[in-house]
Structure formats: C-alpha cells, structure tokens
Design goal:
The protein has five helices and five strands; from the N terminus they run ββαβααβαβα. By secondary structure, the protein is an alpha/beta fold.
C-alpha cells in the first residue's frame, strides 16, 4: 500500500493510511504533503489530518529521526496554525512520540489508539465549535 490519502466528503478531515518506514517518509514527505494540500484545496479551516500508522512499526529511533528532520526542514502541515495532525495506531510508541513532540517541538499531536476513536473525537470537536485547532505558538 505505501500510503493512501482519503478526504472525507463534506468534512474537513483527511485520513492518511501508511505502512511505510521512516526512511521512505523522509525521502517522500514533500510529495505526501503536496498531495494533502492538493486534495484539501478549498476545504477551509480548521483541517484535521489523521495519520493512521496502525500497520507501521514505530521505534524510538524513528521518533528521534523524525524530530531531527523537523528541526532541519519543518513540515508546513504540522506547524500550520489551522491544521491539527493526529497520530493513530495501537502502538504504545506513538504515545511516546506524541509526548516527545510536545517536549521537543512544543506541538500538540493527539494520539488515538484506532481510527474510530480519532474520528469520533475530531467530529465531536467540530460539532462543538469551528475554532481552529490548539494554538501552536
């Protein structure tokens, strides 16, 4: 599969399903980000991106490498003030990733154990108000 992008109809939600390893992402990240921006053009904000890593083996080394990559070339999706990127997957290491991202980059990337939980929370947030995702500053 590598990765697939799904823009949910009539909702400001994109699901990225991925089974790629970190090396692939680091090489092709800009292409993935451009595809996300292209399919969400005209969607408006806030925008929620759920990155489903359920089929990906995430290690602590992967987390550190991704953090270093963000220091070198930050992702415009992760740092955009009106986009909320969420991690999805049952791996406990994703919880570690969310904490390390908060500690090192001061970014909130919510972590959900499965796609249903992530979608339910995002939809609940959207139904409460149309305020942008958490302030990233």
């Amino acid at each position: 599969m590598l990765f697939s992008l799904i823009k949910l109809p009539d909702e400001p939600i994109v699901i990225i399903k991925s089974d790629v390893d970190l090396d692939y992402y680091l090489q092709h990240g800009p292409t993935i980000r451009q595809r996300v921006l292209r399919i969400t053009e005209g969607t408006g904000f806030p925008l929620y991106i759920l990155v489903d890593l359920s089929l990906t083996d995430v290690s602590f080394v992967d987390i550190l490498m991704w953090l270093d990559a963000q220091a070198d070339k930050p992702s415009e999706l992760v740092y955009h003030p009106d986009i909320c990127v969420c991690l999805v997957g049952p791996q406990p290491m994703l919880g570690v990733a969310a904490r390390k991202i908060k500690e090192r980059l001061n970014l909130e990337l919510p972590w959900y154990p499965n796609l249903d939980a992530g979608l339910a929370d995002v939809r609940a947030t959207l139904s409460q108000d149309n305020d942008p995702p958490a302030d990233r500053e």
